[in-house]
Amino acid sequence: MEPQVTGEPQPRTGNPPLIRNWWSLTGLVIAGGALFSFLLLFILDSLARFGNPYLGILTYLVAPGFLFLGLFLTLWGMWRERRRRRREGAGPTQLVIDFSRPRDRRRLAWFVAGAAGFLLLSAVGSYQTYHFTESTQFCGQACHTVMEPQWTTHQQGPHARVACVECHIGPGATWFVKSKLSGTYQVYATLADKYPRPIPTPIKNLRPARETCEQCHWPQKFIGNLDRTFHYFLADETNTPFVVRMTLKVGGGDPRHGPVEGIHWHVHPTNVVQYVAARFENGQWVPDPTRQSIPWVRFVDGQGVVTEFRKRGFTNDPARFEIRTMDCMDCHNRPAHQYQAPTRAVNRAMALGRIDPSLPWIKSNAVYVLTLEYTNRTEALETIATFLATAYPPDTYPDRQPQVRAAIAEVQEIYRNNFFPHMRASWEKYPVNSSHMFWPGCFRCHEGEHTTADGKRTIVKDCNACHSILAQGHGDALRQLAPEGLPFQHPGDEVEGGCYDCHTGGL
């Protein structure tokens, strides 16, 4: 008997699709919303005239994260629904694709098109995510409170146009993976508020300088001598200027263009300089993670001759410590994030006219107010304004108020760029080894105390080995240069010891 055909729809046979459950439907809603958000944010990011780290985070991290969360919930809901049906004895739904049916062909075409589109979006998103997480904005501004000191000093420094990853990661996949693994913990530490204050210099985790710095700077490049002029102002009533003009003997390591000599002699490939960083503490020598104390040095010349130098009292076996081969970072340890000491920043501002040197005691007052302890930036800026305005009242200095206001603004700007009380970051926390004014720097080895076992050789302590003073003082003293070099004349009374013994960055 033929079945009766009527206009009524025939009831569906079999189980409904596995996707018909609340978990899967919720996942589809989340995935659809995330996909729409990604497309919208991607268009906004592509059309934006200026980069925004938070727009990048939403576009390439948050939106894809919710997209994959939605897809996961969809698949998980289907898996739960399949298990439920098995427990109820309904049996699994069989997947049947019949290309003779137009409906199956259309569904397969939609699936292939959707999969291709998803893969295309995933490729674009992954590419953009990679570049976004490698950007300077992401490193410096995404975690604004934590990274503000590094971001600010980077923007003020000589490497402002060099991306963070160029130095902190460099080329190659190995260090990229290492950085991402390290970054995972840093994200956790930031969210859990477990990060140190201030952020320490990544001495151990920093990639070797020969793989990063020498991509742009290499010791074989011959530089020769550099002429430098340093402007200082004394902390007296008249802010007496004191200028030092000198020749820095940078030298180079390419014998085709000049002799292998000067400061860069230390890192020439044929000169291997190794050292141990250790400090004497509680009656014994212990490793110095800051590398500010160096009691042992080994030099291997181009012929393989080995010479060891020790400080008096260091009798330990160097093998018990880390023996480090000297490279760029042992002197240029703050190439991108430089915190200016108050006296240096004020000297520069006065030399450039941003602070009027004719204001009585302005050097002393500016440095003093910068070195006070503050709990937050607002308190510091208000105190700076009040202190300097009180030091130069309108009734005493009626004609100097424009200069006073300019000095207040400049000192406040110096504070903004170099002091970060919420992170306890300032020049005091980060030693600088490329000089010897406020930190031992060169004198870690060149203080005249490193000698060989037989006492016949000593690492030289000679200012003229690295630089020659051509002129010093002020006025007529600067008119005539001395090519052979002058002995340094300390303003006022002669003093002994290293500069850093007295000069701490303040008064």
Automatic annotation (TrEMBL):
<keyword id="KW-0812">Transmembrane</keyword>
<dbReference type="InterPro" id="IPR005126">
    <property type="entry name" value="NapC/NirT_cyt_c_N"/>
</dbReference>
<feature type="transmembrane region" description="Helical">
    <location>
        <begin position="56"/>
        <end position="79"/>
    </location>
</feature>
<feature type="transmembrane region" description="Helical">
    <location>
        <begin position="108"/>
        <end position="127"/>
    </location>
</feature>
<keyword id="KW-0349">Heme</keyword>
<dbReference type="GO" id="GO:0046872">
    <property type="term" value="F:metal ion binding"/>
</dbReference>
<feature type="domain" description="NapC/NirT cytochrome c N-terminal">
    <location>
        <begin position="112"/>
        <end position="195"/>
    </location>
</feature>
<keyword id="KW-0479">Metal-binding</keyword>
<dbReference type="InterPro" id="IPR036280">
    <property type="entry name" value="Multihaem_cyt_sf"/>
</dbReference>
<protein>
    <submittedName>
        <fullName>Cytochrome C</fullName>
    </submittedName>
</protein>
<keyword id="KW-0813">Transport</keyword>
<dbReference type="InterPro" id="IPR051174">
    <property type="entry name" value="Cytochrome_c-type_ET"/>
</dbReference>
<keyword id="KW-1133">Transmembrane helix</keyword>
<dbReference type="GO" id="GO:0009055">
    <property type="term" value="F:electron transfer activity"/>
</dbReference>
<dbReference type="Pfam" id="PF03264">
    <property type="entry name" value="Cytochrom_NNT"/>
</dbReference>
<keyword id="KW-0472">Membrane</keyword>
<dbReference type="GO" id="GO:0005886">
    <property type="term" value="C:plasma membrane"/>
</dbReference>
<dbReference type="InterPro" id="IPR038266">
    <property type="entry name" value="NapC/NirT_cytc_sf"/>
</dbReference>
<keyword id="KW-0408">Iron</keyword>
<dbReference type="GO" id="GO:0009061">
    <property type="term" value="P:anaerobic respiration"/>
</dbReference>
<comment type="similarity">
    <text>Belongs to the NapC/NirT/NrfH family.</text>
</comment>
<keyword id="KW-1003">Cell membrane</keyword>
<feature type="transmembrane region" description="Helical">
    <location>
        <begin position="22"/>
        <end position="44"/>
    </location>
</feature>
<keyword id="KW-0249">Electron transport</keyword>
